[in-house]
């Protein structure tokens, strides 16, 4: 009989890595959900969520008019204050377009986080 050992308590399955920050699927989903809820209710927290103009020309897997919302490295849903460097990008149909970061980008630009 084979019994699989559970992963170590600090083990995380990274869906996206932005700089040195690892985000799980559930963290990405929670940030997207928080951002989309604000977008759909025409509400804001410190000017988020707001339209993302994609000046960098990222090739997202979903069509859209895109919106950005902070994803927090501590796992909390953004509720004001400093947004940090990382963002989830979603469209008006609540489809995830990707996760981007200021980390490693020039000036105030963004680069894609790695999957």
UniProtKB/TrEMBL annotation:
The lineage of its organism: Eukaryota, Fungi, Dikarya, Ascomycota, Pezizomycotina. The keyword Transit peptide does not apply. GO terms for molecular function: hydrolase activity; ribonuclease T1 activity; RNA binding. It is an enzyme of class 4 (lyase). It catalyses: [RNA] containing guanosine + H2O = an [RNA fragment]-3'-guanosine-3'-phosphate + a 5'-hydroxy-ribonucleotide-3'-[RNA fragment]. This is ribonuclease T1. Belongs to the ribonuclease N1/T1 family. Signal peptide: none annotated. It holds the Pfam family Ribonuclease. InterPro entries: N1-like (IPR000026), Ribonuclease/ribotoxin (IPR016191). Keywords: Disulfide bond, Endonuclease, Hydrolase, Lyase, Nuclease. The keyword Disulfide bond applies. Gene3D superfamilies: Microbial ribonucleases. Its EC number is 4.6.1.24.
